[in-house]
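Example (one chain per record):
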Amino acid sequence: MTTAGPVSPWLPTSPCAPDACARQTGPAAGPLLAAARLTAGIAAVLAGVLLAPLTAPLPPAGRRALVRRWCRLVLLAFGVRTKVTGAPVPGNGPLLVVANHISWLDIPLVAAVLPGRMLAKREVRGWPVLGPLAARGGTLFIDRDRLRALPGAVRAMAGAMAGGGRVVVFPEGSTWCGRGGGAFRHAAFQAALDARAPVQPVRLDYRPTGPAAFVGDDPLAASLWRVVTARRLTAEIRILDPISSIQYPDRRSLARAAQRAVASDSANRPSLSVHQRVSPSPASASSARTPA
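Predicted structure:
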């Protein structure tokens, strides 16, 4: 799926491109195994979407537990192993979860550990397989081409957290291949300040990185096939120390603190960087792959 029409110049972009970054590396799984994984993964997603209405009578804690199990099942069905480092904030209070952004796999990976209402661009609603998954999960959709829609999205996030909910955001605003990253955009952090909610930074990594990356104009079907043909694809989520929003006077300083936490965790790991970290700037094109 590609972006149709002109792209707003304020949208973030990254230098990652499928040919350079999102490539299969090493020996691939056989076609029969890959087809079985693809079938099982799609079946797991659709089963969850169809059965989701039955969970409505359950209390929030029960629904979150089912979402975690479902997302772990989806990852396993697609052949992705998971590794969790660190522990979530105890309790069920309001929380803004922020993570670096590499792949569509980020969505079930975060939800398998820290389920919450995702913030995503409105185009995601129309994606095959992932669109229904996002809608059933209570995703907050935003029209990224309309700056006027941003205050409403911030109010919706703040309202969700003020009621004790959890909101998940990928504040880079565009997918990166995992060998670099973009600056965190500030709007979502205003919602944390308004709701007086702590910020939970998490770091996502995939080994190998290439098959998981979903960047630029990479078709979703091609990304799905890379994932199911990858051998020993492991997704790691590292839960970092929470950040109190009360300690920061504005959204910019809070966003920088969260970005430093994620970047510092990356700096302490083996370097794979092939891109320089960049700040959001006007560009002629933006990734079409990206929950906002």
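Caption: The chain is about 40% helix and 15% strand.
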